[in-house]
Amino acid sequence: MVLVLRWIGVLLLSILVIVVPWVYFRWEYTYAKRLRIVTPRVLYRSGEMTAAGFREAVKLYHLRSIINLQDEYPDPELYLAYFTTKRVRESELCRQLDVRYVYIPPDLLPRRELDTHQPKAIDQFLSVMDDKTNWPVLIHCRAGLHRTGIMTSLYRMEYEGWTRAQAIDELKANGFGEWPCTASNVYIDQYILRYRPRKQLSVVGCQTDLTNHK
Fold first, then answer.
1. Which of 2, 78, 103, 181 has a Cα-to-Cα distance from 162 of 20 to 30 A?
2. Over 60: is that where the pLDDT of 20 sits?
């Protein structure tokens, strides 16, 4: 009897030490999945959270727009909370919260167009961010690491004057991974290494005009 009670005690202790922290981690991970501040009152980032997580983020940061970057899920079904199987479409949730829902699938260009075009997603993202009535904006993909990281880098370079190296350093610091942050990654190549902020293009254009008028 004493032995049985001892084993029951060990089992309960194991549940407290292992299972409870794991459940809490999963709940926290799903509820506020990598929710981070990029620039206060302007841009925030995360993974795909539960509906409860999105609600809390909208309330906490007064979000006006949510951008879904999941090219495989144009309008994902979100779990209402961690401990439920009920779901709601993200666009419907945004409607309920009076938040603008935007779907931007990060596209890639064929090699023959790289010198003359840029992915459509870049222009779509800049169009949203150019309009201050859309702020604050939350961008998210599935995990909140790769596609979200790429668009955050784009924002840093375009609106905050970061260099490509600074943007890539932030990608690595936020879990993108050392090996994926190279030119061999087509997203890194097309969205960061080949991207030139519009201010730089304007300066080059002005210099060209002045040269032509000499």
1. 103
2. no
